[in-house]
Design brief:
single chain, alpha/beta, 5-stranded parallel sheet, 15 helices, 27% helix, globular, binds flavin-adenine dinucleotide
């Protein structure tokens, strides 16, 4: 297709996906008319930075406005129309109906190509008191300004955040930074329910260490209000009242599907606008990108909604190019790679968690290692937990999660890259990673996890999930007596304590025919012990994955 052939590209939604589409379309096609329609006041603002502006870590509001309409007009000759909402699509006439909120007028606009990037809206259940003052969700600049001004004017400095997904956790951190006494309520039994429990638990610790009152397994029932209908707190489903003068709801998002539905575009099984690898919907002249659409989820190959900024930007870029030129690279599968900082801890994820694999019925095994993020002898060494989930028959890596004080981002990005290239745990074991003591270890945590997984695949070692029921098994705790006294292994009252260095001499105290589980601090001495027992005729030996450190987080 000649770039001259496309005369008009209309884009609905002017932030992550929409602005990326518009600018790429212009760079690829100097001649097209490109019209960017945004129903709100601002385009191309930094959604992901909003919590940090509220908390003051980003000092200037202006910094959030990544590209203004003036900039987009001047540099890219894009016709940016803010406060103009697309109300309907006529696919036969190839036109959209636009409501200009400034003038109240409605007009029609024809397109050759239409790109839908309408994003998502925060989920708000029908709660008694939900319309009270000082109850907020966070999605855009207006929400940000509202929260910031309510926070500045809140003399009690008491806030409650409902929902402990990424935005909820970021808001907790930033409100604490602003001097608030913060409570966090989560319906699921753990914070950050997206991740496996042993990865999320250190975040919960960090929250409590920073004075946050955490309620897990207890969702919101209603918002408490005063006689002026201002929020005074929430009541949890357990009946517990939590006093607060600022209530933030972070309960997830639902995609903006109304335009697509009205236009008869296909909504996929994942609940988003279905799109092919060029982000075209079932109407090839209409594209869909961002939180409203579905992507191929890498580990399953199935379409799924993945509400993250990276995919929205990449999909917007390629849809803009495809709309402008008729060709582009295909959208690569998305692995849901994501990361969150909670005070002095960071947790990150790529691909499948063990929890999601189980939920989807996908055969998966996991190994968890706890290791320093760089050489232990170098100042600043800090423990990092890395959980690797893989296919037990092929060794293909399905997902990874990490939590720690430092070095989490690097491991998850390496593993996200490995996933994108279809790596197996054997590939990971051979990765040639940069090493010097300030940066890593000669055997990186990624290698350690991969070694453990390979040992499992090769029958050298069997692992037992950290939360397994240990009853009826011969449990051998191979830590020192002092360690066991200080931190007994949870849920294992009958564990036999034989330090690993005494094991060869004390084999006679154990029954070689009994199913045996060895456990240590993090799994490393357990590995040595398991190998000793195995080679001394113990038939059934398993190493407790991650040892007492991981088990005691979740049992
Ligand atoms: P948006 O960026 O939301 O843009 C959609 C736009 O379309 C909106 O401005 C909306 O007003 C407009 N619109 C809707 N309907 C119409 C219509 N009919 N006519 C005209 N305009 C319309 N992701 C990460 O990966 N990492 C993070 O750290 C991260 N942090 C986040 C923090 C916050 C507080 C929020 C809210 C989101 C965060 N996200 C993060 C998610 C990320 O911002 C979204 O996935 C991304 O913005 C989605 O892009 P989008 O273009 O689909 O939607």
């Amino acid at each position: 297709m000649s770039t001259q052939a496309v005369t008009t590209i209309v884009i609905v939604g002017g932030v992550a996906g929409g602005a990326s589409a518009a600018t790429r379309a212009r760079r690829m096609n100097e001649h097209a008319e490109i019209i960017l329609l945004e129903k709100d006041e601002h385009v191309s603002f930094a959604n992901c930075g909003l919590p940090y502006y509220i908390g003051g870590e980003i000092a200037e509001r202006q910094k959030l406005l990544v590209a203004t309409p003036q900039f987009l007009a001047c540099r890219f000759r894009i016709d940016v129309r803010t406060r103009q909402e697309v109300r309907s699509i006529d696919r036969t006439a190839k036109s959209v109906t636009v409501l200009n909120h400034a003038s109240g007028e409605t007009y029609h606009l024809t397109y050759d190509k239409l790109i839908l990037a309408p994003g998502a809206v925060p989920l708000v259940p029908p709660l008694p008191g939900g319309d009270a003052a000082n109850v907020f969700t966070l999605r855009n600049m207006a929400d940000t300004d509202g929260i910031k001004s309510a926070a500045d004017g809140c003399s009690s400095k008491r806030a409650v955040v409902v929902g402990s997904g990424y935005i909820g956790l970021e808001m907790v951190e930033q409100l604490v930074r602003q001097g608030f006494q913060v409570a966090l309520a989560e319906l699921q039994p753990q914070v950050l329910p997206l991740m496996d429990a042993e990865i999320a638990q250190p975040l919960e610790d960090a929250l409590r260490r920073h004075g946050v009152t955490v309620y897990v397994g207890d969702g919101i029932k209603r918002i408490l209000t005063d006689d002026r209908n201002a929020a005074t707190g929430i009541e949890l489903q357990s009946g517990q009242a939590v006093q607060a003068d600022l209530v933030i709801l972070g309960l997830g998002v639902r995609p903006n599907l109304s335009l697509a539905e009205q236009a008869g575009l296909t909504i996929g099984s994942g609940g988003g606008i279905a799109a092919n690898e060029y982000q075209q919907t079932n109407d090839p002249d209409i594209y869909a990108v961002g939180d409203a659409c579905e992507y191929v989820f890498g580990p399953t190959g199935q379409p799924q909604r993945i509400a993250l900024a990276g995919p929205a930007n990449r999909a917007g870029r390629l849809a803009g190019e495809h709309a402008a030129t008729g060709r582009s690279m295909p959208m690569a599968p998305v692995f849901g790679t994501s990361i969150v900082r909670v005070f002095d801890r960071t947790a990150a994820l790529t691909g499948l968690t063990a929890k999601l694999a189980a939920c989807l019925g996908i055969p998966a095994r996991s190994v968890t290692v706890v290791a320093n993020q760089h050489a232990g002898y170098f100042p600043g060494a800090a423990m990092l937990t890395l959980k690797l989930t893989f296919d037990p028959s092929t060794g293909r890596v399905l997902g990874a999660q990490a939590v720690g004080a430092d070095g989490v981002d690097k491991r998850i990005d390496v593993l996200a890259t490995a996933l994108a290239f279809g790596a197996t745990v054997r590939d990971l074991a051979g990765l040639d990673l940069a090493y010097a003591p300030p940066f890593g270890s000669a055997k990186d945590p990624i290698h350690l996890a991969a070694f453990a997984a390979c040992n499992q695949l090769d029958g050298i070692e069997q692992f037992l999930d950290a939360d397994a029921d240990l009853s009826g098994q011969q449990v051998v705790d191979v830590r020192t007596a002092a360690e066991v006294k200080q931190t007994p292994l949870a849920g294992a009252p009958g564990a036999i304590n034989i330090p690993v260095d005494e094991l060869r001499q004390r084999l006679g105290e154990l029954d070689p025919s009994a199913p045996t589980v060895v456990s240590c601090g993090v799994g490393l001495r357990g590995h040595v012990a398991a190998r000793i027992l195995k080679q001394h005729g113990f038939a059934d030996v398993k190493n407790l994955s991650g040892g007492a450190t991981i088990r005691n987080r979740i049992v």
